[in-house]
Amino acid sequence: MRKANPDIVPGRTIVVGTQQGLYARVRRLAEPLLRLRSTKDDGTVLEAEYPLEEGPLAAEAAAGGFWSYAAGTAYRLLVDFGVGGLCIDNYRTTLPLKKGLSSSAALCVLVARAFNQAYGLRLTTRGEMQYAYDGERMTPSQCGKMDQACAFGSTPVLMTYDGDVLCCEPATLGAPLHYVLVDLAAGKDTVAILAALQAAYPVPATNEQRACVELLGRINADITQRAIDLMATGDAQQLGALMREAQAAFDARAAPLCPAQLASPVLHRVLAHPPIQPLIYGGKGVGSQGDGTAQLLCRDAAAQAAVCGILQADFPAMTCLPFTVPATGTSGSLHNGGSSSSSGVAAAAGAGALCSNGSPAGKAMEPVAVAAQ
Description:
373 residues, Alpha-Beta Plaits, Ribsml_uS5_D2-typ_fold_subgr, single chain, alpha+beta, Ribosomal Protein S5, domain 2
């Protein structure tokens, strides 16, 4: 948005990988086809096949269905690299879908990495992220570039957005952080939320829109900088307090632009649930918020387990995902190659591991990690 209005403050987000994700086996096809099979988190199996041609892939992406993200990413790679046919079997999914955990970006990154590995495209991790982003932008989901950071795996990352320039820096974490991600078992419409918030850009026209732009600009820059400082010192207590502050600011300045989705009654019920208050330092919504997923920062590992027990007893429909972010030490680096074999994970989002099960000649190929938000 800064290309259209340079007065907008550059955007910033802090992301880190979770242990949930998409797992797939891929193989080349002699025919120019994209053959897709997915086992969803609820066990449902979906299958589809598309000719590897620009027209059908672009049409499927624009239609906005389940396979639109895969089609959009494949389209971008076909146009630039002339890739051949591919079979992708997403045989296992542990990442909840449509819960604000960036499952769409997870799929886009998985598809980009699948083609990269199967056809030796020599894309770096940042290259995979870019094609995943371009693919998702072909769908009705007009996402930003945050979600694709899951391609980096479990390293905490500070991302800064300035027009077309995306900067990614490793974030230092001085002590482990014990989170619980709570699938609120409700529902959210991410497309509607993003459309409402993006209507404030590039130039806000109302007081409500100006408040939102300030939230995602100046206020966000301040909050993220303080969070980075607290992470470095390992001060989980103050980081939890900052999460509460961030949630309050979001409720005051962003929620009025999309009240039907961002009133988030289920999210707020969980954040304020009395029995867990002595066990947590703070909490907030995930991603574009809404009643998708809550993130709670717990006091320690024992508190983390207790929070899961309480919430699952008091809210049986909800699912708790304990997630501990390990300390990074004093420095870190971001993997920027296209053939990592470490496990991939994503922040406030999902992760994934992509395993290629064979080359055209039938030789076994090394398992490859895929990060997906």
